[in-house]
Structures are given as structure tokens and as C-alpha cells.
């Protein structure tokens, strides 16, 4: 059988050149080498509105929003590009990471989300992977203003790697990968991405499925109109065992399919019972060798996410290791 690998050929690193973005920048440099990918640095954000730098001279007017395409504007962008180039040179020297030969620098004055969408359109949606830093914000800041990393993931519809900002992740390289599977077509791309990632990084892959026994029982026995009046009885142990046996068979088939497609064999499987988000995070806490979580994006509408929430969104908020939300760019 011909081997199929979901390779990343075009990586976009979104940065505001601040401390929050450093781990994303380092990861982008490393993964560009790992996948032999073209890398684009998108330097953007509010950082440009107020932080001076040695490349800007006093004669250049710092442009505001909707600033006309004047010579001063063009000169400003060129100087910001020099600043970005110098920043990555220092990052490369400090962390001993090579800057890829096939690298480009893009400067945008918009916020990270708007700038990312603009770049995707300009590049005809040829980006395979976006890498961005996870900002540390309070609950109220996330509620009122959202998270740029989360919004980029939701709006771009492109696979997005979200890097924690703490210094311990500056030396990150995948050494153990966990992929959460729903055992259906919504997880297929995430599973293939995970197998490819593990094969490239030469690290073990754990294919994990978690089912909520209470939810499963409710789905099997629902015959009422008003859920608020329904109190589910305790699901029988034999029923749980039957479901677990069925899902074990399914996950083993997925494992075999991934091995056939990618030629990568270091894949293990695990079936757990409980709340999906809680069990994933508990497993990561227990197993320090798992340092990359890969999940598939859920296709709910914004309205549904607002009222009912999203397992993906909850995991994005709580995850404390690098998180890759796999989304196939059909364009």
C-alpha cells in the first residue's frame, strides 16, 4: 500500500515579538526544519503602536489604522521588517535553532486575528499549520475580549499549534504525542496528523478514546421531551463492558489503518471512561512523557458554542502543554 503522510509544507508563525510569542517562534523554527517546510513570519499586533525600536528614526511617522499608502508608511513597514529579522536572528543564536533558508517576513499593523486572516487570503489559503503563543489572561479578559490564539484557531480553519508561554517550553520538541479520537470521521484528520507528527519526530503515539458512560446511557434511553425532568439511572456494568469492548475493536482498526497509511508502527491505544476533557488533562498530568496533545476541531456554529460550549474550547483553555488543533484546509 502506498504510504500517505499528512505533511506540513507551509508554516505560519504569528508573533508580536513579545515574550509571549518566543516559544511559538522557536517551535516554528524547529518544526520548519522537521517538516522541511516553507516558513512565513507574520509580525503584527498592538506591539507596533507603542514600542520604539532602534530601526525607527524620528523622521518616520508611525502609521495609525487606515493610514494611507504613503512613502512614510512603506518606510515604517520596511523598518519593522528589519526589527523582526533582527529579533529572529537573536532568537536563533540564543536558543541554537537554525533559521530556515525558505523563510519570509510579513508585517501587518492589525491585531493578530485580523492579520492572520489577511495573510491566509493573500497566500490563497496555502498555509498548512499556524503556530501562535498562548497568552496568559484572566477569566474576565477571556470572557470579554477572547483569546487571540483561540480566535485564530476558530476563524482560520487551519491546523493551529498553541504554545504555552512559560520558559520551560522554550526547549520543546515532541517526545510523546497524545491524540484524542472520537472514533468517527471527525477525528480522522487529527489521527493522520498525529501519526505523521510522531513519525517525523520519532516518538511514541497514544491513540486515546474516552466515553462518558452517563451520556451514553442517556443517548441510548432517551424517550422524553423535557431533559430537565429526566434523572438517568445508573448504567449497568455489563453494558459498559460491552461498549468498551466494541470501542476497543474500533480503535484497534484505526491503529492498523494509520500504520498502513503512514508506515509508522509505534502506536498504542487506550480506552477510558469519564468526562472527556477531565480525563485527557488527568492523563497528561500523570504522564510527563506526553508533551503534545492533538485534537480535531469541532464544527459547531458560533451560536451553538456560545449556548452549549465546546469540548475543544474547554480543552484549549485548560491545556497546559502544547496543543495542536488539527483542521484540514480544504481550500
Automatic annotation (TrEMBL):
It holds the Pfam family Usp. Signal peptide: none annotated. Residues 8-163, 177-325 form the UspA domain. Coiled coil: none annotated. It comes from the Bacteria. PANTHER family: STRESS RESPONSE PROTEIN NHAX, UNIVERSAL STRESS PROTEIN UP12. Belongs to the universal stress protein A family. This is UspA domain-containing protein. It comes from Fluviispira multicolorata.
